[in-house]
Sequence to fold (248 residues):
Amino acid sequence: MSDSERPPVFEADRDDPAIRRAYESARESFRYFWREVAWERRRIVPALDVASVKAPFHDGTHQAEHMWLSDVDFDGRLVSGVLLNTPNWVKSVKEGDLVRIPLGQISDWMYAISGRVYGAYTVNLLRSRMEPKERREHDEAWGLDFGDPAQIRVTPNWPGDPQEHPMSEAMATSLKEQLAKDPSFATAKGDRGWTILHQEALAGSAPTVTVLLEAGADPDALTDEGMTPSQLAASLGWDRVVALLERK
Fold:
Protein backbone atom coordinates (compact mmCIF):
# COMPACT_ATOMS: atom_id res chain seq x y z
CA MET A 1 0.00 0.00 0.00
CA SER A 2 1.58 3.30 -1.05
CA ASP A 3 1.85 6.33 1.21
CA SER A 4 -0.74 8.13 -0.92
CA GLU A 5 -3.38 5.44 -0.38
CA ARG A 6 -5.65 5.16 2.62
CA PRO A 7 -7.31 2.04 4.02
CA PRO A 8 -10.99 2.01 3.08
CA VAL A 9 -13.78 2.59 5.58
CA PHE A 10 -16.32 -0.22 5.86
CA GLU A 11 -19.69 0.01 7.56
CA ALA A 12 -20.36 -3.19 9.49
CA ASP A 13 -23.46 -4.35 11.30
CA ARG A 14 -22.66 -4.02 15.01
CA ASP A 15 -25.33 -6.64 15.75
CA ASP A 16 -23.51 -9.21 13.60
CA PRO A 17 -22.12 -11.86 16.02
CA ALA A 18 -19.15 -12.51 13.73
CA ILE A 19 -18.11 -8.87 13.68
CA ARG A 20 -18.39 -8.69 17.47
CA ARG A 21 -16.13 -11.75 17.76
CA ALA A 22 -13.65 -10.09 15.41
CA TYR A 23 -13.57 -6.99 17.64
CA GLU A 24 -13.03 -9.14 20.73
CA SER A 25 -10.26 -11.15 19.10
CA ALA A 26 -8.46 -7.97 18.06
CA ARG A 27 -8.61 -6.59 21.59
CA GLU A 28 -7.47 -9.84 23.18
CA SER A 29 -4.47 -10.16 20.86
CA PHE A 30 -3.46 -6.48 20.74
CA ARG A 31 -0.38 -7.28 22.82
CA TYR A 32 1.23 -8.96 19.82
CA PHE A 33 0.66 -5.86 17.71
CA TRP A 34 2.14 -3.67 20.42
CA ARG A 35 5.15 -5.96 20.91
CA GLU A 36 5.98 -5.71 17.22
CA VAL A 37 5.59 -1.92 17.22
CA ALA A 38 7.82 -1.67 20.32
CA TRP A 39 10.58 -3.63 18.61
CA GLU A 40 10.15 -1.70 15.37
CA ARG A 41 11.12 1.47 17.23
CA ARG A 42 14.55 -0.04 17.94
CA ARG A 43 15.31 -1.31 14.47
CA ILE A 44 17.87 0.59 12.44
CA VAL A 45 16.25 -0.69 9.26
CA PRO A 46 12.42 -0.61 9.52
CA ALA A 47 10.68 -3.96 9.00
CA LEU A 48 6.99 -3.00 9.13
CA ASP A 49 5.23 -1.97 5.93
CA VAL A 50 2.06 -1.12 7.83
CA ALA A 51 1.17 -0.80 11.52
CA SER A 52 -2.37 0.47 12.11
CA VAL A 53 -5.22 0.18 14.58
CA LYS A 54 -8.90 0.57 13.78
CA ALA A 55 -11.36 2.20 16.17
CA PRO A 56 -14.98 3.38 16.14
CA PHE A 57 -15.92 7.06 16.04
CA HIS A 58 -19.39 8.53 16.39
CA ASP A 59 -20.97 11.86 17.17
CA GLY A 60 -24.58 10.85 17.77
CA THR A 61 -25.79 11.51 14.23
CA HIS A 62 -25.17 8.08 12.74
CA GLN A 63 -23.88 4.68 13.72
CA ALA A 64 -20.18 4.46 14.52
CA GLU A 65 -17.67 4.83 11.71
CA HIS A 66 -14.68 2.50 12.06
CA MET A 67 -11.46 4.12 10.84
CA TRP A 68 -7.73 3.43 10.90
CA LEU A 69 -4.98 5.10 12.92
CA SER A 70 -1.27 5.28 12.13
CA ASP A 71 1.72 6.30 14.30
CA VAL A 72 0.18 4.18 17.05
CA ASP A 73 1.21 4.57 20.69
CA PHE A 74 -0.04 2.88 23.86
CA ASP A 75 0.44 3.94 27.49
CA GLY A 76 -1.15 0.98 29.26
CA ARG A 77 -4.63 2.47 29.10
CA LEU A 78 -5.13 4.48 25.92
CA VAL A 79 -4.29 3.72 22.32
CA SER A 80 -3.39 6.87 20.42
CA GLY A 81 -2.68 7.58 16.79
CA VAL A 82 -3.22 9.80 13.78
CA LEU A 83 -6.50 9.31 11.92
CA LEU A 84 -5.77 7.95 8.44
CA ASN A 85 -9.27 8.16 6.94
CA THR A 86 -11.48 11.03 5.91
CA PRO A 87 -14.79 10.40 7.73
CA ASN A 88 -17.86 9.85 5.61
CA TRP A 89 -20.35 11.16 8.15
CA VAL A 90 -18.71 11.69 11.54
CA LYS A 91 -18.01 15.40 12.06
CA SER A 92 -16.20 15.29 15.41
CA VAL A 93 -12.85 14.15 13.90
CA LYS A 94 -11.02 14.61 10.62
CA GLU A 95 -8.13 13.00 8.76
CA GLY A 96 -4.83 13.87 10.43
CA ASP A 97 -6.27 14.35 13.92
CA LEU A 98 -4.41 12.86 16.89
CA VAL A 99 -6.96 10.73 18.74
CA ARG A 100 -6.95 8.58 21.89
CA ILE A 101 -9.13 5.53 22.42
CA PRO A 102 -9.37 3.16 25.42
CA LEU A 103 -7.86 -0.21 24.54
CA GLY A 104 -11.21 -1.90 25.19
CA GLN A 105 -12.80 0.09 22.37
CA ILE A 106 -10.49 -0.70 19.45
CA SER A 107 -12.03 -2.82 16.71
CA ASP A 108 -8.99 -4.16 14.84
CA TRP A 109 -5.24 -4.00 14.31
CA MET A 110 -2.88 -5.07 11.60
CA TYR A 111 0.79 -4.96 10.76
CA ALA A 112 2.64 -6.22 7.70
CA ILE A 113 6.19 -7.50 7.24
CA SER A 114 7.44 -7.90 3.65
CA GLY A 115 3.87 -7.45 2.49
CA ARG A 116 2.54 -10.28 4.67
CA VAL A 117 -0.34 -9.20 6.93
CA TYR A 118 -0.86 -10.14 10.58
CA GLY A 119 -4.07 -9.42 12.46
CA ALA A 120 -6.72 -7.66 10.34
CA TYR A 121 -9.59 -9.56 11.96
CA THR A 122 -12.42 -7.44 10.56
CA VAL A 123 -10.74 -7.14 7.17
CA ASN A 124 -10.48 -10.90 6.91
CA LEU A 125 -14.08 -11.33 7.99
CA LEU A 126 -15.13 -9.08 5.13
CA ARG A 127 -12.77 -10.93 2.77
CA SER A 128 -14.34 -14.25 3.79
CA ARG A 129 -17.68 -12.95 2.53
CA MET A 130 -16.34 -11.88 -0.87
CA GLU A 131 -16.35 -13.86 -4.07
CA PRO A 132 -12.82 -14.94 -5.13
CA LYS A 133 -12.57 -12.26 -7.84
CA GLU A 134 -13.68 -9.52 -5.48
CA ARG A 135 -11.20 -10.73 -2.85
CA ARG A 136 -8.34 -10.65 -5.33
CA GLU A 137 -9.27 -7.11 -6.35
CA HIS A 138 -9.49 -6.08 -2.69
CA ASP A 139 -6.03 -7.49 -1.93
CA GLU A 140 -4.52 -5.91 -5.03
CA ALA A 141 -5.93 -2.53 -4.00
CA TRP A 142 -4.18 -2.84 -0.65
CA GLY A 143 -1.02 -4.28 -2.21
CA LEU A 144 -0.71 -6.76 0.67
CA ASP A 145 -0.89 -10.51 1.25
CA PHE A 146 -3.75 -11.14 3.68
CA GLY A 147 -3.63 -14.92 3.25
CA ASP A 148 -6.49 -17.26 4.02
CA PRO A 149 -9.31 -15.24 5.65
CA ALA A 150 -10.18 -18.26 7.81
CA GLN A 151 -6.64 -18.45 9.26
CA ILE A 152 -5.69 -15.19 10.96
CA ARG A 153 -1.93 -14.75 11.26
CA VAL A 154 -1.05 -13.15 14.59
CA THR A 155 2.75 -13.43 14.62
CA PRO A 156 5.35 -14.81 12.20
CA ASN A 157 6.42 -18.42 12.78
CA TRP A 158 9.70 -17.58 14.49
CA PRO A 159 12.01 -20.31 15.79
CA GLY A 160 12.61 -20.57 19.53
CA ASP A 161 10.36 -19.71 22.47
CA PRO A 162 6.91 -18.82 21.07
CA GLN A 163 6.25 -16.56 24.05
CA GLU A 164 9.21 -14.32 23.26
CA HIS A 165 10.01 -12.05 20.35
CA PRO A 166 13.22 -13.26 18.61
CA MET A 167 14.86 -9.89 19.28
CA SER A 168 14.46 -10.29 23.05
CA GLU A 169 17.43 -12.58 23.69
CA ALA A 170 19.79 -10.57 21.49
CA MET A 171 18.63 -7.35 23.13
CA ALA A 172 19.16 -8.84 26.60
CA THR A 173 22.82 -9.54 25.81
CA SER A 174 23.53 -6.05 24.46
CA LEU A 175 21.54 -4.45 27.29
CA LYS A 176 23.62 -6.28 29.90
CA GLU A 177 26.77 -4.91 28.27
CA GLN A 178 25.36 -1.39 28.20
CA LEU A 179 24.36 -1.54 31.88
CA ALA A 180 27.84 -2.73 32.83
CA LYS A 181 29.22 0.47 31.29
CA ASP A 182 26.49 2.76 32.62
CA PRO A 183 24.44 1.33 35.56
CA SER A 184 22.37 4.54 35.74
CA PHE A 185 20.66 3.51 32.51
CA ALA A 186 18.56 1.04 34.53
CA THR A 187 16.86 3.80 36.53
CA ALA A 188 16.99 6.82 34.20
CA LYS A 189 13.61 8.30 33.26
CA GLY A 190 12.65 9.65 29.88
CA ASP A 191 9.46 10.98 28.35
CA ARG A 192 6.36 10.64 30.54
CA GLY A 193 8.54 9.47 33.43
CA TRP A 194 9.11 6.06 31.84
CA THR A 195 12.17 3.97 32.59
CA ILE A 196 13.42 1.32 30.20
CA LEU A 197 11.86 -1.23 32.58
CA HIS A 198 8.44 0.31 31.91
CA GLN A 199 9.03 0.01 28.17
CA GLU A 200 10.26 -3.57 28.32
CA ALA A 201 7.42 -4.63 30.62
CA LEU A 202 4.78 -3.24 28.27
CA ALA A 203 6.50 -4.96 25.34
CA GLY A 204 6.35 -8.29 27.21
CA SER A 205 10.08 -8.99 27.02
CA ALA A 206 11.01 -11.33 29.88
CA PRO A 207 14.74 -11.59 28.97
CA THR A 208 15.33 -7.84 29.06
CA VAL A 209 13.15 -7.37 32.15
CA THR A 210 15.29 -9.99 33.91
CA VAL A 211 18.50 -8.17 32.98
CA LEU A 212 17.12 -4.84 34.17
CA LEU A 213 15.97 -6.21 37.51
CA GLU A 214 19.35 -7.80 38.08
CA ALA A 215 20.95 -4.41 37.37
CA GLY A 216 18.85 -2.66 40.01
CA ALA A 217 15.91 -1.30 38.01
CA ASP A 218 13.04 -0.24 40.28
CA PRO A 219 9.97 -2.48 39.81
CA ASP A 220 7.88 0.05 41.76
CA ALA A 221 8.82 3.10 39.69
CA LEU A 222 5.81 5.11 38.51
CA THR A 223 5.24 6.70 35.14
CA ASP A 224 3.80 10.21 35.02
CA GLU A 225 0.41 8.50 34.63
CA GLY A 226 1.01 6.56 37.86
CA MET A 227 1.62 3.09 36.42
CA THR A 228 4.22 0.57 37.58
CA PRO A 229 6.03 -1.82 35.22
CA SER A 230 3.89 -4.66 36.58
CA GLN A 231 0.68 -2.78 35.85
CA LEU A 232 1.84 -2.07 32.31
CA ALA A 233 2.69 -5.73 31.72
CA ALA A 234 -0.65 -6.79 33.19
CA SER A 235 -2.54 -4.38 30.92
CA LEU A 236 -1.60 -6.61 27.98
CA GLY A 237 -1.61 -9.96 29.75
CA TRP A 238 2.16 -10.55 29.83
CA ASP A 239 1.90 -13.01 32.73
CA ARG A 240 5.53 -14.16 32.57
CA VAL A 241 6.75 -10.58 32.92
CA VAL A 242 4.27 -9.81 35.70
CA ALA A 243 5.57 -12.83 37.65
CA LEU A 244 9.17 -11.61 37.30
CA LEU A 245 8.29 -8.13 38.52
CA GLU A 246 6.16 -9.27 41.44
CA ARG A 247 8.91 -11.52 42.76
CA LYS A 248 11.04 -8.44 43.38
Q: What stands out?
A: The chain is about 35% helix and 15% strand. The longest strand covers residues 48-57. Strands lie at 48-57, 65-74, 78-83, 98-102, 108-113, 116-119.
